[in-house]
Amino acid sequence: MTDRPLADKIALVTGATRGIGAATAVALAKAGAHVVCLGRTEGGLQDVDDNIRAVGGTATLVPLDLKDSEGIDRLGGALYERYGRLDIYVANAGILGPLSPLGHIFPKDWDDIVAVNLTANWRCVRSFDPLLKLSPAGRVVMVSSGAAHKARAYWGAYALTKAGLEVMGRTWAAESISGNLKVNLFNPGPIRTRMRAKAFPGEDPMGLPAPEEAAAAILPLCLPGFMETGRLYDFPQGKLLDFQMPA
Known about the structure:
Blueprint: E1 10-13, H1 19-30, E2 34-39, H2 42-54, E3 58-63, H3 69-83, E4 88-91, H4 107-132, E5 139-143, H5 156-175, E6 182-187, H6 194-199, H7 211-218, E7 232-234, E8 239-241
Parallel strand pairs: 1-2, 1-4, 2-3, 4-5, 5-6, 6-7
Antiparallel strand pairs: 7-8
Helix pairs in contact: 1-2, 1-7, 3-4, 4-5
């Protein structure tokens, strides 16, 4: 693999202000892609931009709350006008939501986690799918969670939305099976992030992998030569897991 295997590629990363999203944006930029970084805070985006510049990369910063569905639609149009396509989309943005019994979750909290973890991702699919199919090798990585495969007490809201995200990604992959677009999922497992610290405040974060390690595993899934689709890459196991894909 060359030092810049993604030269001339256009990548988009959501939740790019910190954690896995920020690390992935830097990794893609270092590999040569121009990275469109989405995040809610301008300060966080500026920090990521500084890190991208430090590795010789370039970025476009887009302050956007993903609950702004019309903003996502406008972004798709702007990307088409500027670049005419999208080569890589890393759907990383997500919120933990309340860790609470299902019957105790306030409706507003439920609506917020569904809006960010599910509805916003669907709106991104709707907006970016045509652009990705204009690429000769469109690549999508949707960041899931091991919680999607468990029914752990008090984690229902987060787990339900991540399970829905996985079905969304697999459905998108099945609908794109005959084209150049490849859609895969990524389970990072326990990573040294702010979200993890919020969920497990008593845990020693230094015993966990850094976001940059997860980003290094995401990068190969974004390369034009990666031809798998509808698969889940499990970072703790270090391998691709199979789903049932249509013949």
